[in-house]
Amino acid sequence: MKVKCGIFVLLMLLIWSRPQAQRLIDRSGTVTFFSEAPMENIEARNNQVLGAIDLEKGVVAVSMLMKGFRFEKALMEEHFNENYVESDKFPKASFKGKLKEPDPSDFEKNGSFTIAVSGDITIHGITKPLSAEVDFTISDKQVTAKTVFNITLADFDIDIPGAVVQNIAEEIEITASFQFQKN
Amino acid sequence: MKKWLAGAFFLIVIFLSLAYYFYNKPRRDMAQEDAAFTLSASELSAAFFADEKAANEKYLGKILEVQGRVSELIEEENSFGLLLDGGEDGMVYCAFHNQPVGISVDQSVVVKGICSGYLMDVVLNDCVIKKEDL
Q1: Any residues with CB less than 8 A from the CB of A45 and at least 6 apart, and which?
Q2: Which candidate from B28, B76, B117 shows the least CB-CB separation from A67?
Q3: What is the DSSP code (8-state) at residue A67?
Q4: What does residue B59 show for φ and ψ, rounded to 5 degrees?
Q5: Which residues of B touch A50 (CB under 8 A)?
Q6: Nearest 5 degrees, angle CA A7-CA A13-CA A14?
């Protein structure tokens, strides 16, 4: 609840304050997760992920709706929502973090660079610390950000019943990418 | 002996067919299923803005038919859709599987989709256009 409030406040500040060149928002970010397992690989994708970044303060906030993840198989999607992440109880997953020693000049010229980000990720109602490397690309019209990291399902109390263990990996690879249009 | 074998074989076929059907279960068809609620983009935005928890309880996971004015088209690499103007309480983000054809900004439309919840806007997924040019 606290994290949820914190993220909401952060997003409120980012959205309702006067438009600044340094505060960028992407409401169509993409998050995909990939699970490799003996029986079959499981992949899902969410294309309505909200990302907000304050370049001046070096603060990042990401929020997504679990029901927005699309799987190839409808049955897998149902199990994901009803049994694993319980999306009726916990509709969102989110991340809030800070960029490590950001150099503002990096964001002001065209080019690519990588920065570490660290903060908290909340999935299934449980919050854990998370650090990742983010690849930024700056061009005239936009700022793109991409990151890949792993999470352990057990950390978030996501219970995979014994019968299905063969199908689902304990470690999931998550890829997040955003395209922020410059103001 | 033969009868038993035939019976067992028949049951196995049934079981495999069911398993196959469920494994390849079709998605909910927006065109066929009835909407649980029909309302305007402003009403929907207002509901979530005022009380997200109550709005989730009412609308989350349900098929909604939402009427509104198109304020923006979304044509990203992986995300297609449009934003409906919900007034001062925010917008309704309608995500489609493919770029909706022949829809322009300021047009009044009815979109049918599943409510996924609330971020910066109310989000509807698997959308289809129900009516255009009201």
Answers
A1: A30, A31, A32, A69, A70, B78
A2: B117
A3: G
A4: -110, -20
A5: 119-120
A6: 90
| C-alpha to C-alpha distance for B59 and B42, rounded to whole angstroms | 14
A28–B119 CB contact, under 8 Å: no
Model pTM?
0.86
Per-position b or e across A100-109, b if 16+ CB within 10 A of its CB: eebeeeebee
Distances from the Cα of B50 to the Cαs of A156, B47, B100, in angstroms? 30, 5, 30
Q: Which of residues 69-128 of A touch B (CB under 8 A)?
A: 70, 73-75, 78, 87-88, 91-92
Question: How close, in Å, is residue B115 to chain A by CA atoms?
Answer: 8
Closest approach of A152 to chain B, Cα-based (Å): 25
How does pLDDT run across A104-119, given as a tens digit for each residue? 888 889 999 999 999 9
State pLDDT tens for residues B73-101: 998 888 899 999 999 999 999 999 998 88
Q: Which of B56, B93, B116 sits opposite A27 (nearest CB)?
A: B93
Choose among A126, A175, A118: nearest CA to A149: A175
Tokens linked to A75:
């049955």
CB pairs under 8 A between A and B: 69
Sign of CA dihedral A73, B30, B44, B38: negative
